[in-house]
């Protein structure tokens, strides 16, 4: 089986250690991976950040010094074409944990099951009455970490969830600010750990959040920004925060090495979407969805190589199962790009935009290596809707001021347009900032027709729940009346010294623990139990209310 990025790796060791055979010296060369034993699985560490485009030296941006991320890049495969499905966090996090497109599960809006954090800034009662509901995947769908836990992995999340449904207690062994692989019960227990850093989040540019290092005069502005001191200041703040991030990443990598785990752990580094700045976050342009993505394998293998294959966030969950030699369920919509089950390269990535807090929207996009097709379904809406959270940023207030004064330039048309064309088309090679819309250029008509067809075929295969009002969507997710169902309570039984737990709700996951214990265990089959402590159990189907907690006493 081959990596889609033309890597083929052979694993010949009888420990977690990898030995790779590189068949060619070309970047993205084809390499095979073979596993010596089905019982030997690597540890996996995700180090993630928020709201950051590829503003790193390894991606050609030398504005700030990031020695730890530079070192990691030198030790890693550097992916140049990795994209989120959305330019905002919650739908992307849903994509990552499920391996499904948010448009397939009702996870499109930002956000669904919690009120916006900027609700206090919205005074219009109609806009304050935002719908609240949980995305509801098909009954067989699980958070991919459940498959890892069932296979014996200790899974920790430090600590953001934001999955568009309430985080199920079955997803993680630990999900909190102290979650760490160091808490696993045995040193030999394989782990999957996530550390998420927020210092580069959009909100961290609202004020100076890191030491001021970058001179605003030294930053390079994209042409869609007006050149003013405030705009430069906020972009400089973003770079200042990246410097802080570099140290945070280094601390986790140091802990991995201190524990002697760097030689049997695969490390992923990526951002949850592009920059937390106007015309980036929430948009389907590359400024909103293109992210840095590094993968470091043990023993320095493939260090310093580059892969330009298209990778989407929807591919991450099946890739985790491929790397850990677990079966990939059919409901997953992504393509594994590493491990024994890696598929052929993808030809396109797909991006989306839907309601952002009180601002309605529906945009879809298709991108290959060079061209980007954008379909605007709400041509009646301006590009810049009412987003009170975003408008706290000084850079956005400056853009509003210049727009109202008629002082924005032609390249900033996406800030001034009060309606949208039905289609946009960009050559990202000659126009990387996606400013020059080619949709009306006759020489591109055949290409546009091709992309239009790809978009339509995608909808035919995967559907698109964004095509209906949310009031109807809720009824479709929770038929017939839009009332959220409740997962049936689990039933605990005891047979021949083993505990068995069942739930009548199709597809429900089940958790249990001895009374008094902090962490919930994932139930995946009969469990041997001894002692006199009572057992607590709870069941949940994603998108439904969890069951009540059932207690079984050995004295029953």
Question: Overview of this structure, please?
Answer:
The structure is a single chain. This protein is an alpha/beta fold and 556 residues long. Helices cover 21% and strands 18% of the residues. It is built from twelve helices and 19 strands. The chain has helices at residues 67-74, 89-98, 102-105, 125-128, 144-150, 229-258, 286-289, 316-323, 394-404, 413-416, 445-462, 470-477; strands spanning 43-49, 77-83, 154-158, 174-175, 191-197, 265-271, 290-296, 305-312, 349-353, 363-367, 371-376, 423-427, 491-495, 498-502, 509-514, 521-522, 527-528, 535-540, 550-552. It has an eight-stranded mixed beta sheet with strand order 4-3-5-1-6-7-2-8, sandwiched between helices. It has a four-stranded antiparallel beta sheet with strand order 9-10-11-12, with helices on one face. A four-stranded antiparallel beta sheet has the order 16-15-18-19. A hairpin with a 3-residue loop joins β10 and β11 (371-376). α6 packs antiparallel against α9. Residues 1-38 have low confidence and may be disordered.
